[in-house]
Amino acid sequence: MSDELLSRLSQRLIVHSGVSPDEVLGETKVQGVKLNGQTYDADAVLFMTGVKPDVQLAQSMGLEIGGLGGVKVGTLLETSKDGIYSVGDCIEMHDRLTGKPVLMPIGSVAARAGRQAGVAAVGGKKVYDDVSIRFQYDRIFDTDIVCVGISSVIAEDLGIDANVLYIEDPAEFTKIALVTSSDGTLIGGQVITSRMGARIGYQIHKRIEMGAKLDEAPLLEPLHKRMRDHLEETLGPIQ
Predict the structure, then answer these.
(1) Residues in a beta bridge with 140
(2) Taking a C-beta distance cutoff of 8 angstroms, is the pair 155, 95 a contact?
(3) Which of 40, 87, 189, 236 is least enclosed by beta carbons within 10 angstroms?
């Protein structure tokens, strides 16, 4: 968990970082969890351990597996065997900028991949350019967290020379990191904010989809600032 998110959590929450539970307590339902020798009451325990492609079925069918451990697919999500398509967490997709294989275990990517594979499976030839664009939205303890496109870490892994522009709006407790390629084209962004994170994420997504450069298509000013500017233009300076 990032320091930024930790700083936004309620002081009533106790966060134990870098430790694993010793035991989940309860017979027919969860009643608690034992952590570092201490017992805490709990109604539910949620484990988030990352994602690893499950390719057992694909291997039994003789489908080709890529170097990252996922099922190899082409642009139309077709596997190494004609007429067999694969989507979701088990596949290696092609990065839209470099063409290199990547793992994208994200629900929004899986949904668009399913659309692409479905069209191709019934004989359609349309290729959707947005299949591998990540759009992940979560709201955790009254905080919006949005990840769009590729991060600076993924860019480095793919060999992309990337820059990061940071934007902050204290009025909305908003922090934005925009990732651009060396020519200024927007390729990713991350948002953490108290509200309306999805709207900001949508702006970033559309500009990535368009292949837009930030100096040509900057993000819109925050809504509260646009409203203030409009009122000042109409009524005069606000004291």
Answers:
(1) 143
(2) no
(3) 236
End-to-end CA, the chain: 40
Give the tens place of pLDDT for each residue, 137-180.
Answer: 999 888 999 999 999 999 999 999 999 999 998 888 899 999 99
192 in the same domain as 146? yes
Copy the structure tokens of residue 31: 């009643």
Give the count of alpha carbons within 13 A of 222, CB side only: 18
Query: Which structure tokens are listed for 17?
Result: 């970082």
pTM of the model: 0.79
Task: Domain count for the chain, please give it.
Answer: 3
Structure tokens at 140: 């955790």
Tokens 């108290």: give the residue: 194
Answer yes or no: are the C-beta atoms of 143 and 10 closer than 8 Å.
no
Cα–Cα dist 141/13, whole Å: 10
Q: Are 94 and 132 in contact (CB under 8 A)?
A: yes
